[in-house]
Amino acid sequence: MLKTIVKKGSYHDSVVLMLLTNQISTIKGVKKVSIMMATPANKDIYRQSGLSTEELESASANDMVVVADVDDESLLDTIMQETEAFFKKQSTKEGDKKGAEAVKSWDKALEKLPEANLAVVSIPGAYAALEADRALDEGMNVFMFSDNVTLEDEIKLKKKAHGKGLAVMGPDCGTGIIQGVPVAFTNNVTPGPIGIIGASGTGIQELTTIIDRLGEGVKNAIGTGGRDLSSEVGGTTMMDMIEAMESDTSVKVLIIISKPPAKDVRDRISDRLSNFKKPVITLFLGEKPEYHEENFYHAYTLDEAARLAVGLVRGEEVKEAEVKVDSADFFQPEEKKTIKAYYSGGTLAGEAAMLIKDALDMKVPPQKAEGFMLKTGGHIVVDLGDDVYTQGKPHPMIDPAKRIECMQEAIDDASTGVILLDIMLGYGSHEDMAGALLPSIIELRDKAEAEGRKLFFVATVCGTRRDFQNYDEAVGKLKDAGVIVCENNKLAVRTAIRAIGMDFEEPSKEIRPKKVAEIERTEASEKLIQLLSEKPKIINIGLKSFAQVVESFGCDVVQYDWMPPAGGDVKLIKTLSFLRGYEGFDIDEANRSVIAKIVASQPVIKDVVPAKSVIKELNEGKVLLHAGPPIQYKDMPDPVQGSCVGASLFEGWAATEEEARKLLEAGEVTFIPCHHVKAVGPMGGITSANMPVFVVENRTDGNEAYCTMNEGIGKVLRFGAYSQEVVDRLLWMKEVLGPTLGRAIRSIDGGLNVNPLVAKAIAMGDEFHQRNIAASLAFLKEVSPIITKMDMEEKDRYDVIKFLADTDQFFLNIMMATGKAVMDGARLVTEGTVVTAMCRNGVEFGIRISGMGDEWFTAPVNTPQGLYFTGYDGEDACPDMGDSAITETLGVGGMAMIAAPAVTRFVGAGGYEDALRTSTEMTEITIDRNPNFIIPNWNFQGTCLGIDARLVVEKGITPVINTGIAHKIAGYGQIGAGTVHPPVECFEKAITAYARKLGFDSEE
Fold first, then answer.
1. Is the separation of the CB atoms in 17 and 35 below 8 Å?
2. Do 604 and 752 meet the contact criterion of CB atoms below 8 Å apart?
3. Do 46 and 52 meet the contact criterion of CB atoms below 8 Å apart?
4. Planar angle of CA 219, 220, 222, nearest 5 degrees
5. 3-state per-residue secondary structure call for 389-426
6. What string of DSSP letters covers 129-190?
7. How many CB atoms sit inside 10 A of residue 818's CB?
8. How far is 964 from 997, CA to CA, in rounded Å?
9. For strand 175-178 and strand 181-184, is the pairing parallel, antiparallel, or unpaired?
10. Parts of the chain with a pLDDT under 50
């Protein structure tokens, strides 16, 4: 039976998960298992392997999924224990190394290394092109280790790179050396005067290691990716790099290597190389050149190309290596034995197939199958690095399993006389592949001997004596086990061919005068010349091991711990890319204009008046304002409906609850969102005509905003209570509290400035959503002397001051009106992606962004998580509601959790470290810091400023909102406090709509 475990938000690199899958598959009782990230491509692999489940299909690209076929469900505990131990071991290994500094976004990476000129991309192919495109926009060259990138994307990227004077190496570029620094699956090669450009990874490795063992070196070896020399791509990277290599004074000899290129591209490259100013060697795999030209040499094999290059550097002929083997025991041709060859990569496999076909004197193309370079007459040459073998599985350079399986199948074929293989050393490869393969080699050799059969194992080890796997030790192990080990692949293939009684001929080549083609000369890009002339400064996006290697060679490198942006949704990623690169105007500049208005705002408490005196819509019959985006009474959650009942009783529209509900259900009351009339309302948000409201004016832009006054704690209207006690308090606020505060504030010349109150209170531990005690007392400090002098009933005076002194949260509603006034002023900038409002009505969460004006973008609201009063738990909680998230929109509240460590446990955020982590995480989705509101215990940094909807979608980090928790049944009031996050869908809808407004179609 299939069992599924989904680890939400647990991202791991595909190579790591492949190795983990192999380990878990060895557990007794696990019939089949796959562990991958739930990307769309990986879900296809699960389906193809019969491991798709409902839980898998609902998981996101940032979720790790374990699907196991087990009979005993208790094995799941064992699997997860092994998984955790595996990750712990990986973490310990990484911790033992001095790793490159890690970041989680482009912005942070560029901040750490602004002069970076190379992005190394090793992430799933579905996303690699998008990140490569971002790198090009940032002026960086790209090394794309990633495969499964579409041909269309490769063409676009390389055209773009060419236009910018940059290069895209890849996709599926496994090997590179830049200024002696190995990139990806590369060997530790001595720097030297030979340059290489190759549409081949293992081919470059074979060339560089032969050159190294011959005593010369390679400073720059540039991989172009296997498709670069196709007609569609047109050799873009190859041609640009030829120009750069010609200008590179350290290059004395150039080697060009490629799998069979398109004829038109091959001819264009040959024409360019005929004009090359230095000696150049070409190796177009599959061609059998019959001559050389002066300073323009044409090789048949990798070994020949390497020896020619070394000879040209030294000015002498370099002899071919020999293998010491007793050939007397080899097979005779009439025995018709076959070769089974299993390679790590396409180029060495292609060379083997070419030489075997030559020996067989094949005049017609052999039968081929997926993953096979040759399949004819019992002879097979397999590229185990082909996608058909590596999709969802480790590469054969790092995992011996598939090769062992293939060798076991080969031994069952009685015609098999030779098993031929390569061992790839170097960075990224298995730490001891020879040792990993030897037990199977010995077992199969012994099995053949027991059956009275001869079987030869022939191998080549591709590596240098500085590779960490120890070249000589690997060769020694194999030889000790009876394996015939050859110096290079050509020699290994020739030995295998001779072992079955055959051979091939190589022509002796004369040197003819060079035919120089007429071409249109172009200049080498300065950026590419720079890339080849100094150690690269690298942003490594993906495999951490790549960063660790280049750092050990003295490179500046930043490790970008990549996760699929936008939850892995490719359409959203393209939308983000469009907005980032939009050329109509500078969206970032528009966003800076929005936040500049926030910083420049001057909010002032101007008055306290009946709501109907400043909100004209409240004078048009029975009208109630509610929190959040638009909603009808019938759809409101019970506490909000309860608030409507209380407001109806307060206004005298009904004498009883039954009467109130009757008129509400009959549609006699009109409902308007507070935000639509310059107002905000806490929790249920219900505001009626005669409720007193604070009037806050943003003096900078001349706009006003309104909010009711805080009722205190306990059973209150905003939490859905509507008893006589609640109504009586509202009436007292209307008749006493509101008029008293109105008179006091009006007596202050110019009103009461809010910014100084906030600046003082934030330094005293307020965050202005769950904790407002310092600000409430600061407000009391300002108004109480005035109230003491006012002509009023002494009891009323006492009651007002006592109420203000007792209501720790009184300033919250002032802060809400302030947030609304400031953000409405910022909304005067009508472009950009800054969030200008966040609110909820108990059913939907809604946001607005600067570039989309009054339009709401909504999604189902979440339920807060936090601490509950005694006797209540999460089952009792109402989904989130209220306009108070305007505080987080401004950058305080949950966004400034670090300012109020005293309340972090109350809202369920843990202790100080959790508060610090929360606020620091919020900087990932905001544009800047607000210099008006400095937080002392955050190294005197300002509060977060300007939530950018693009960053929310890109990083999957939603704003954290501090909030009270209402009971889901009206009348109970507040039952706890906690935090809540908006649904990311709101932000996704907002940026999609804005991109559409600017002319983007995600379907194109």
1. yes
2. yes
3. yes
4. 160
5. HHCCCCCCCCCCHHHHHHHHHHHCCCCEEEEEEEEECC
6. HHHHHHHHHTT-EEEE------HHHHHHHHHHHHHTT--EE-SS--EEEETTEEEES-----
7. 30
8. 37
9. antiparallel
10. 95-96
Query: What phi, psi does 55 have (nearest 5°)?
Result: -65, -40
Determine the pLDDT at residue 994.
97
The per-residue pLDDT for 368 is: 57
Enter the pTM of the model: 0.80
For the chain, give the number of residues.
1004
Dihedral Cα 790, 796, 802, 805, nearest 10 deg: -50
Sign of CA dihedral 208, 211, 213, 219: negative
Tokens 């051979």, residue located: 503
- Region of 941 please: left (phi>0), alpha (psi -120 to 50) or beta: beta
Residues 81-104: tens digit of each pLDDT: 888 888 877 655 554 455 556 888
Q: Which helix (H) or strand (E) holds 17?
A: helix 14-24
Segments in 183-289 forming alpha helices (H): 201-213, 236-247, 263-273
Alpha-carbon span 775 to 814, nearest angstrom = 10
Distance CA(740)–CA(783), nearest Å, equals 10
Helix-strand-coil split of the chain, %, nearest 5 = 45, 20, 35
Q: Which of 259, 268, 171, 184 is nearest to 221 (CA)?
A: 184
472-514: pLDDT as tens digits: 999 999 999 999 999 999 999 999 999 999 999 888 899 999 9
For 604, the token pair is: 């002032």
Which residues, in sequence order, are bridge partners of residue 372?
Answer: 382
Q: In whole angstroms, what is the distance from residue 342 CA to residue 685 CA?
A: 71
Radius of gyration of the chain (CA): 36
Which DSSP category does 381 fall into?
E
Structure tokens given for 691? 């409720």
As a whole-number percent, the residues of the chain with pLDDT over 90 amount to 71
Residue 753 pLDDT: 96
Residue 914, both tokens = 């959790």
